[in-house]
Amino acid sequence: MALGAHLCDLDDLDAQGITDVLDTAESMAEILARPIPRVPALRGRTVMLLFYEASTRTRHSFELACKALGADSLSLAAATSSVVKGESLIDTVRTARALGADAVVLRHPASGAARLAATLNLLPVINAGDGIHAHPTQALLDVFTVRRRFGRLAGLQLTIVGDILHSRVARSSALAFARMGVKVVLCGPPTVVPPEAGPALGARVCHDLTEALRGADVVMALRIQKERQDRGLLPSAAEYRALWGLDAGRLAAACPGAVLLHPGPVNRGVELAPELLDRPEAAVDSQVRAGVAVRMAVLYMLLEQGAGAA
Amino acid sequence: MGLAEKAVIMDEAAIGRALRRMSHEIVERHGGTGGLWLVGIRRRGVPLAQRLAREINAFEGLSPPIGELDITLYRDDLTTKHDRPRVGRTLMPGDPGGKTIVLVDDVLFTGRTVRAALDALVDLGRPAEIQLAVLIDRGHRELPIRADYVGKNVPTSRREVIEVRVREIDLRDEVAIMDQS
Amino acid sequence: MIALSGGCLCDPAQGLWGPADIYIRAGRILAVVPSGSPAPDGAWQVYDCTGRLVVPGPIDTLCRLSPAAEPWREDADTLAAAASSAGYTSLLVYTGSADPDIISGLARVRRPVRLLPVAALSAGDGLCDLGRLAAAGAVAYSDWPEPTSDPLRLRRGLAYAGALGRPVVVHPEDASLAQGGVMHEGSRSFAMGLRGVPGVAEVVAVARDAALQRAFGGRLHFAAVSAAESLPFLGDASASVMAHHLVLTEAAVAGYDTAAKLSPPLRTEADRAALLQAARSGRLLVASGHRPTPPEEKACEYDYAAFGASALETALAVALESLGPEAFVHATSLGPARAFGLDGGTLPPGAPADIAVLDADALWTVRPEAFLSRGRTSPLAGRSVRGRAVLTIVGGEVASGDLDCCIKMH
After folding, report:
1. A contacts of B78 (beta carbons < 8 Å)
2. Which chain C residues are closer than 8 Å to A116 by Cβ?
3. How far is CA C339 from the centre of its chain?
4. What domains can be seen in chain C, in order of their start residue?
């Protein structure tokens, strides 16, 4: 299916739907390359950025996307609004609509929160990360970045290394790449890469890094979070680095010139050896740029082209 | 609402003649091809611009650079349309600053497409001059816009629709007048 | 003096299944005779039950009643009205209370259903005053919906309650393995990004608690089991399954539907099939697991939503349709009476006249907004179910019923 009235996750987006977004994002990338990267496509529209979790990258990326399309963005950070006073998500979305917002971009710590906001059908909802469930625009920008590098997607292999269990990026990206014909391998400590991850995401699970990297055209390293260590899911940083940390030597197991992705921010020296980021294969900066183009495409398609919500 | 074809008002030969005449007018008015760009408005303006360039090349021995302009993101009439036009790419042969740009489109009607194209063009740089070439001018302007080069003036009623078909997209060259039925 | 004539009586304890006339006097069964036999002497108010299923009064083994009186919360009146309309004649109500006054107050309720209070088992590290609570009318002890995490406390509870002749009801879930999960753990929970409760969190708790009961005696009942692998470990304990688990799986959680957020969670199709088989065979009783929640505790993010559903008004229909009449009586009446040492479950002469008359063929659509219960969320909302109560008789008197629809008085 094509992009509908909302973008909550990638469940409803088939290969053609993803391709439509990527193609539109290419046009947006062209606009971003102009001296004055701005078009009036969404002039007069207001996009509410509703962030219940701290995030500078994603929020700024959406803000730039709004700006480039001529839309106004309004940030409602959890710490500065009635969100802390216990107003329910449903009421907050209603308020956003009442304030004249034409779309809501939602970042929320609970999985399924975007779906809940979307069920109100008051205005288009774009999921900017819900709990550990989905981060669809991140996945689309990853696919966009890789398609640009290789000129194709089908037949490639993506290996994702890290804490798959707690990663909405891994979930969405694995699904998006698999849908585009990319073979996906999931790798990391067994405590956070359980067997059910395979069938859930249409991927192969492999706990040995060298084996998982074999044949990989794209390697995605995930951010390792300290609190997972505290909860006993991950051993020490030293243990992680020794078994699943990526460095130039390990990466040699992958295809020559394999692209390296990271959703950021990077823990240098834990999941990635610092020198890797300076190699041409590292696409981290391209990912950031692609993020604005992809978010422009999604905003434009939902607000201007979509059947839209009531 | 369907469309019924009423008449074919230009065939392949007529279109060819019109483009040839327009190409001469362009070069004559401009005094050559130096600093001249032909920029087609997507979609059917693009093959028309290419053909004008070929015609110019035939008698000048030089083809002016060609650009492609997508105006989807500049349109002000999208919300009244039911289709989902795809956002196309804008491709320019360089910085349009200081150039004389001839915008090329198939039909001039309300002028809103041209207005959007002008906005899109000036966002890309500051051309010395912008002119407009259209294969068909069917009247009913809603904006103070006129064409500098016209293939054929076709008086129409608002109910009618002009369809320009080009080989590159529609597999044949002709202009038809359609009626909403 | 009332008579139920012509209904199809299903009373497996007496080996009765067929058209029968039932005569009730002074709140008790006077006689059960083949349909059409001469009536005993007396002036009888006759209810024509032709075409209906007549069963010993259903007893719900798992039903929450929060003592906190708030206007939007279920209270004893709304709970009893909902249960009675659905055909229940007795409810084990889980109060979580250790206050003998609350227990005795509930135990006095006889109409429109009998409330059988289940008192708290433990408070802090110790046991509640189980003897005083028994005297007040508690029929069992339980900390449900909290799991009983400390095996030593359960050992003591089983011994103490056993001496009082009352069972301990536990919610079998290892809290450490469950780790705050909100649905069944599997590829679906992984894909949805929701923390899962693995089936094994229940299996180890069932095995442990059953072993404690075998070792130290007492009577043990598992409030609700949800995993197929739990079944071989039940030991000498009795156990219930919630009716929802007979017809729904984890698929009901799709779209983050908070109505399907239950504890224990809905699990896989294999689990559902095994639970259904165990209920048909008589190994599992079928409970409602009624746990009403205020609407705002469901109209929110799935993670934050309350566990539980309004189940009293759907459980019997689901059980009857899933099990058929004989297993239904076993799972909802005879089995509960035996497991908790209660009167009921069969209708011999002299027994209290607690009876439900059901229309087993009535097809209806679940509309939670029309529930009598104050709990208005159900994972069955919008689904069609078959079977509903037309007459509920408690202590020989009509407690609720749709008299127009089915009853002809002479």
Report:
1. 304-305
2. 256, 300-302
3. 12
4. 2-53+392-409 (2.30.40.10), 57-346+360-386 (3.20.20.140)
